[in-house]
Amino acid sequence: MRAFMGKAFASELAALPVTLAWAQAQEVKLLERFVADAAELPLVAIGSGGSSTACHFTALLHRTRCRRPAQFMTPLDVLSLPAGLHRAGVFLASASGKNKDVLAAFDAAIAEEAPAIAAITLRGENPLGLAAAAFSRARVFTAEAPAGKDGFLATNSLIATCVLIARAYGFELPDLKTRLRDDRSGSSIFEGRHMVQVLHGGWGGPVATDLESKVNESALASAQLADYRNFGHGRHLWLAKRAAETVVVALVTPGTFAIAESTLKLFPKSIPVVRLETTLDGPAGTIDLLIQAFGLVARLGEARGQDPGRPHVPEFGRKLYRLTPPRVRSTVPAPIQRKLWALPEVSENDEAFNVGVERFLKAARAAKIGALALDYDGTLCAREDRFDGLRDDIVAECARLLRAGVRIGIATGRGKSVRDELQKALDKKLWPLVQLGYYNGTDIGVLGDERSPSKGGPEEEILTRAHALLAGDTWLTATAKLTPRRHQIAVEPKGAVRTDALAAHVMALLAPIDGAGVRIVVSSHSLDVLGPTRGKGSLVSWLRQQIGDGREVLCIGDRGAWPGNDYALLAERLSLSVDEVSSMSTACWNLAPRGVSGPDATLLYLRAIRARGGVGTFAWSEDAAR
After folding, report:
1. Which residue segments constitute the domains of the chain, with CATH numbers given?
2. 494: Cβ contacts below 8 Å, ≥ 6 apart
3. Which of 91, 111, 88, 113 is nearest to 102 (CA)?
4. What is the pLDDT of residues 516-527, one digit of tens each?
5. Residues 574, 553 contacting (CB under 8 angstroms)
6. Separation of alpha carbons 375 and 616, rounded Å
7. Rounded to the nearest 5 degrees, what angle is found at the Cα of 588, between the Cα atoms of 587 and 590?
8. What's the Rg (C-alpha) of the chain?
9. 507-525: string of b/e by CB count within 10 Å (b at 16+)?
10. Which residues form a coiled coil (predicted)?
11. How far is CA 288 from CA 51, 198, 281, 454, in A?
């Protein structure tokens, strides 16, 4: 039994102006945060069917805006072989947010702890959005698009997704609704021809992907893709042998105009060519060509006497769609896997780490904890919420430990703003037990001390020289804010400047004083130049003096790998990470369940500490990390 599926393709094309206007008006801050998080990473864009086009498009956006490698993959690509997601940003596209393949790919991204994950869905509530809500590293755009569900082919959802993600990457788009075309002429060119050869380049690539998908999925023809130069490496033989069966579709953008002209003028005149051309460059050109490609599919449907949006779908096809993709579960415990990922080379030899984690857990459980040394941004609060105060559940656990007499030290790269936030969050009676290590631990004061942190510029002559070197660079002062303190210089990007590139530039500027004791540490949003004064380890030493012999300090942070700003803090013997780890087997262990990071992981650690009479014990269950 065969059944019609979808809705009239013409009605979907008619809805495009409304979709374009809607997508241009949506708030995209959530997606912009993902772009900022993924800016220093390669990107893997994952999707199936019509969403493949949006993923191809997103990969181009990332390559262009962030200058990082980016690749489109299907869910099965990700599930079948190692994809290196633990060192990549991951973008997923799914209009419904419920197909099994994209859900399995999302699970893989979480299991591999991709540093930044985002998805665009066009349903107000959907399984992908619900799954992502449990993980702070995942951001899912969910909204009800005005055109509703697509027919058999991705149309309005595809255009909406492309507009949304292009805006998130900071590209301005013109009023594209004026570029809709209703050109149904020329459908006779396809009569008797069942092969479509699509030539493309640059920003036309995603449109080629879309034509291949639509033409094949609707069974209107078979399609082959080649960029203009790859076509010259042998694929032209198809035209020489099968010209009578083939129509060439040439996708032309401003960037490929010259090569398209040179290529097409060499074709025999007997070969029919449909030319889709845009005068718009960049992402706007892609979207313009996509709309033109939709019209071409409509014309091809007319030639075949069928509606591309409402094909007959066989029952076996429905069953194929509903098959469950493979889900590969790692047999390596999450804490061990993180250490293996941190090694300088790929390794599956986990013997040292298996021994290391057992020794660490034994020591941590046996320790009499008298104080905690905690990083702030990314550990006690999410990075994007760092000026919004602490979560209630984090405050409750900190207050519980303080009331039990366990001291808490906060090691932060910031200054007075952290003191203000903690004073608002904690009962004033608890303030004497809270120490703050401002400016990466170089300026220590009690929470109630309104005179801390100290004001003024660098006290160390070497930092004065460092500031002069940095302030003399016009590019740096134009793109970053320099704030000199007593023992550090904060370098905060003013825009979307990659911190790794910024750190390299700063180190190059500081080369004249190399070896004089200046170093840098990097956070997710800035970097700090420190002098010879000890950093966050100073707070740990100060806490040890306060609690005396017989009790220990448990350190918790998020950036344990150098040059992260917690690398020294998490080199302490009793140290836990809520995100990045070093490759040391003796310290800096991340025990949290797969995919759990930041304040969510911190909360698990705090809840595992049983405290009484000024002494805490770390009652961690290994089952929590599996």
Report:
1. 1-182+309-329 (3.40.50.10490), 189-281 (3.40.50.10490), 361-453+534-626 (3.40.50.1000), 461-532 (3.90.1070.10)
2. 479, 480, 481
3. 91
4. 889 999 987 789
5. yes
6. 19
7. 125
8. 29
9. bebbeeeeeeebebbbbbe
10. none
11. 17, 17, 10, 57
- Between CA 435 and CA 446 the distance in angstroms is 4
Coil, helix or strand at residue 110: helix
Residue with tokens 């780490």: 353
DSSP character string of 181-242: ----TTGGGGTT--EEEEEE-GGGHHHHHHHHHHHHHTTS-EEEEEEHHHIIIIIHHHHHHH
Picking from 210, 203, 154, 213, the residue whose alpha carbon sits closest to that of residue 19 is 154
Place of tokens 């007997």: 270
Dihedral over Cα of 35, 36, 38, 43: its sign: positive
Report residues of the chain scoring pLDDT below 50: 1-2, 178, 184-185
**Which residue bears the tokens 């599919």?**
297
Total-model pTM? 0.91
Tell how strand 116-121 and strand 138-142 pair up. Answer: parallel
At 492, the amino acid letter reads E
